[in-house]
Design goal:
This protein is an alpha+beta fold. The chain has helices spanning about 1-20, 75-80, 90-95, and strands spanning about 25, 45-50, 55, 95-105, 105-115, 120-125, 135, 140-150, 155-165, 175-185, 190-200. The chain contains three helices and eleven strands. A hairpin with a 2-residue loop joins strand 10 and strand 11 (about 190-200).
Length: about 210
């Protein structure tokens, strides 16, 4: 009986060690252009970009009109990153391009554009108001969540989403979406980080 107890205890300790150590997944696509690091100030991510983008994860199927990954569309990605306010369906459908301008060293203006170039919605965010920060990779926006595991009995945790917008050598806008989560499943702690990359090409005829 003691041997069985020792085996169970050993398996439990191994599981604890693995979960405490956490894990990280996702890597930058080898066939994408290089990410252009910036200096100490905010990078200029300005430009006009196609609303429909590309994803590092082929399961996102961003080129498929039926794709259900909201990050395939820049307008939706900006909403999830708390840059755009809650959009209505008509705005999402009408948006064909997104324009980003840098009116000051500490701010960006994001505008959703219709096919005729008219502005559907725009918002200016700034570091002065604490809406984003800057690092050498790009403009950094953060959101967070906490809660319980829904249908997973005994699961509870909290997580953060970090959105880093930068620019690639071909002029594309790039987003690194980093999701970190920590919590407990019953009484076993867990932690992990997942990275996904999305890319929006410069709009034709901008």
């Amino acid at each position: 009986m003691s041997g069985q107890h020792s085996s169970i205890q050993g398996a439990w300790l191994t599981l604890m060690a693995l979960t405490l150590g956490g894990c990280a997944t996702g890597s930058y696509p080898d066939d994408w252009p290089s990410w252009q690091p910036s200096g100490p100030e905010c990078p200029d991510i300005g430009g006009t970009y196609s609303n429909l983008g590309l994803a590092s994860n082929p399961k996102a199927r961003c080129g498929d009109p039926s794709a259900n990954d909201p990050f395939c569309r820049l307008h939706s990605a900006l909403y999830i990153a708390d840059i755009f306010d809650s959009p209505n369906l008509a705005d999402l459908i009408a948006t064909t391009r997104v324009r980003i301008q840098k009116p000051a060293s500490d701010s960006f203006q994001f505008a959703a554009l219709a096919a005729d170039g008219s502005v559907i919605y725009s918002r200016t965010v700034s570091t002065t108001d604490g809406e984003f920060t800057c690092d050498r990779d790009g403009a950094v926006f953060r959101t967070g969540w906490k809660g319980y595991g829904g249908d997973t009995m005994g699961a509870a945790g909290a997580g953060t989403r970090v959105f880093i917008f930068g620019k690639l050598s071909d002029g594309s806008l790039v987003l690194r979406k980093r999701e970190g989560e920590a919590g407990a499943l019953v009484v076993v702690p867990y932690a992990g980080t997942k990275n996904d990359w999305y890319r929006w090409l410069p709009a034709v005829g901008r």
